[in-house]
């Protein structure tokens, strides 16, 4: 991973990277050697996260994967045989669990070169954590906000770290409702709440990169694409889940809003690109898809790609930062 000492002005517009929607994670990495680098990949033992873990570990990186305690046995099976992969218990909906995981990593004294906030839930019925917070916001954004804050000393120590935070095209379904983020006074919408949480992820990246770049840490939001053959949508009714078949090579066949489905290896590509590509040296604070910076859409856009204003607006990003500090009680120690 190249040095990020040059601070270029990043614009929310494609840079013509040469990659595309069908690029795989291995292709996005290329022949880069990650020996000596350390990564943390939430959700890194299944779905697209497992492909991220495989590619990083295969290139020589040490990959630490936080795992729900109830899924530890399955995770051990999934990563068996991968070099330099460490599994540690953590639950993103449990603040004490996040702190325990981060405390152990910080105590190891290692720098953290790549943090990939990949784990998440989709379309959950109304559930609340112990604090009363809506579960999709709590897991997809607030848990990762807290984790990133607690890992900040190790990110700073890496002197050139990158953070790739998985958002989603679904952010167009819901901006952050700053008056009622936890659905205490409005009717609950499964997909509206998911969209809100992914808008929050993108806004978090905008505010974080603004603060972190002075310490040579850059952050990127990622839309991985639609990957139908993962367990992300286990909470959805069967009729709402993607309908697909597999071709002779095991690739999913089908489309969502006219956009072809991706395999997990392709869904992992943009996170790998954001975490490692020298094409992004000196850049940050942007929303990416298909291994490129995405197009910025107008608010009334009917596009099936790109990013909407409420997910990249700097003023909304500052409001989210303040809200995140309030809801979690956690502040970054810059």
Explained architecture:
- The protein is of the alpha/beta class and 334 residues long.
- The protein has a single domain, classed as NAD(P)-binding Rossmann-like Domain (Rossmann fold, 3-Layer(aba) Sandwich).
- Helix content is 33%, strand content 13%.
- The strands form 3 sheets. Strands 3-2-1-4-5-6-11-12 form an 8-stranded mixed sheet, sandwiched between helices.
- α4 runs parallel beside α5, α5 (135-150) runs parallel beside α7 (190-212) and α7 packs across α10.
- The longest helix is centred in the middle third of the chain and has 23 residues, at 190-212.
- Residues 1-6 have low confidence and may be disordered.
Q: What count of domains describes the coordinates? A: 1
Architecture in CATH? 3-Layer(aba) Sandwich
Number of helices: 10
Question: How does the overall form come out from the CA principal axes?
Answer: globular
**Spatial order of the strands in the main sheet?**
3-2-1-4-5-6-11-12
What is the percent of helical residues?
A: 25-40%
Class based on secondary structure composition and strand pairing = alpha/beta
Q: Tell me the name of the CATH homologous superfamily.
A: NAD(P)-binding Rossmann-like Domain
- The pLDDT mean sits at 92
As a percent range, the share of strand residues is 5-15%
In whole angstroms, the N-to-C terminal distance is 23 Å
Assigned CATH class? Alpha Beta
Largest sheet: 8 strands, mixed
- The whole-angstrom Rg is 18 Å
Which fold name fills CATH's third level, the topology? Rossmann fold
Task: Count every beta strand, where a strand is a DSSP E run of 2 or more residues.
Answer: 12
- Low-confidence parts: 1-6
């Amino acid at each position: 991973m190249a040095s990020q000492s040059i601070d270029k002005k990043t614009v929310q517009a494609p840079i013509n990277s040469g990659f595309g929607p069908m690029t795989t994670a291995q292709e996005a990495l290329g022949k880069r050697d990650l020996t000596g680098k350390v990564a943390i990949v939430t959700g890194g033992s299944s779905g697209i996260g497992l492909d991220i873990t495989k590619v990083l570990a295969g290139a020589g990186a040490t990959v630490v994967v936080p795992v729900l305690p109830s899924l530890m046995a399955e995770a051990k099976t999934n990563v068996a045989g991968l070099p330099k992969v460490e599994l540690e218990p953590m639950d993103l909906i449990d603040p004490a669990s996040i702190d325990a995981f981060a405390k152990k990593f910080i105590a190891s004294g290692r720098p953290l070169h790549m943090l990939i906030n990949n784990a998440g839930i989709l379309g959950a019925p109304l559930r609340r954590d112990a604090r009363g917070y809506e579960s999709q916001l709590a897991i997809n954004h607030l848990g990762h906000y807290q984790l990133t804050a607690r890992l900040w000393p190790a990110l700073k120590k890496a002197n050139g770290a990158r953070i790739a935070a998985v958002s989603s095209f679904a952010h167009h379904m819901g901006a952050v409702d700053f008056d009622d983020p936890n659905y205490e006074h409005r009717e609950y919408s499964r997909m509206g709440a998911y969209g809100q949480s992914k808008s929050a992820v993108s806004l978090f990246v905008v505010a974080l990169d603004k603060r972190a770049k002075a310490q040579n840490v850059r952050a990127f939001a990622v839309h991985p694409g639609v990957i139908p053959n993962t367990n992300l949508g286990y909470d959805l009714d069967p009729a709402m889940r993607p309908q697909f078949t597999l071709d002779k090579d095991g690739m999913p066949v089908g489309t969502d809003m006219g956009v072809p489905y991706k395999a997990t290896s392709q869904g992992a590509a943009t996170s790998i690109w954001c975490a490692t590509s020298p094409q992004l040296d000196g850049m940050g604070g942007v929303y990416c898809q298909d291994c490129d910076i995405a197009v910025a859409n107008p608010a009334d856009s009917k596009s099936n790609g790109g990013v909407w204003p409420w997910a990249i607006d700097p003023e909304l990003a500052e409001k989210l930062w303040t809200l995140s500090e309030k809801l979690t009680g956690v502040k970054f120690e810059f």
